[in-house]
Amino acid sequence: MSDVTDTSQETKSKWARMLPMAVLVAGAVLGAYALGDYLSFEALRDNRETLIAYRDAHYALAVVVFMAIYVVIAGFSLPGATIATLAGGFLFGTFPGVLFNVGAATIGATVVFLAARWGLGDRLSAKMDASEGKVKAIKDGIDENQWSMLFIIRLVPLVPFFVANLIPALVGVSLWRYVVSTFVGIIPGGLVYTSVGAGLGEVFARGETPDLGIIFEPHVLLPILGLAALAFLPVVLKLIRGKEAL
Length: 246
Prior knowledge:
Elements: H1 2-34, H2 41-46, H3 48-57, H4 59-75, H5 81-92, H6 94-130, H7 134-144, H8 146-155, H9 161-170, H10 175-185, H11 187-198, H12 200-206, H13 218-245
Helix pairs in contact: 1-6, 3-4, 4-5, 4-6, 5-6, 5-11, 6-7, 6-9, 6-10, 6-11, 8-10, 8-13
């Protein structure tokens, strides 16, 4: 009887641990379906005068509401993150808009990280530590170069934001390392899109749409990739030193 009770409690505990991640996934699906039309460039363009008027009348509250909405978008991985970043620049300028954008994105990303770690990350990391062969070698490689790997997945624009939120949780990265690397790592990309958003007034006046592919322009992409290469340098040095030791 005791074994049955223990099994039942273990099953309930397992489902309870998975609940936060399940809520985020369900919210992402429902949000993408229900809010898609509201998290668009057209919605921002059509409501720009109302948004500016509200900001001018209630600046502090506008910052709080904006960041709360951005946290929800990032936390539920909704499709409007780029539009939210543009809105941050449009409403608050490149500075302090970039701080609001990066801060809210970091909080939202941390929500995903904690939900994933609570549901699966701790147990998966423990299993990887206890494993042998290639799996253990991969885990050890990540552990030895955590800072470099964390900055690289944030700096390289080809890594989806949601994926970059999950990977650290599944390999046992500490919360403070995750928060610091996320905040610092997304600053370059956040600064680019915030500055684009700061110039939306002129774009609206011309009846055009912003160039969201600007981050892939050589004069923007190359410095970011340079930062990624700099972050990867410690890994290269360790490999070189390891070969010299052999």
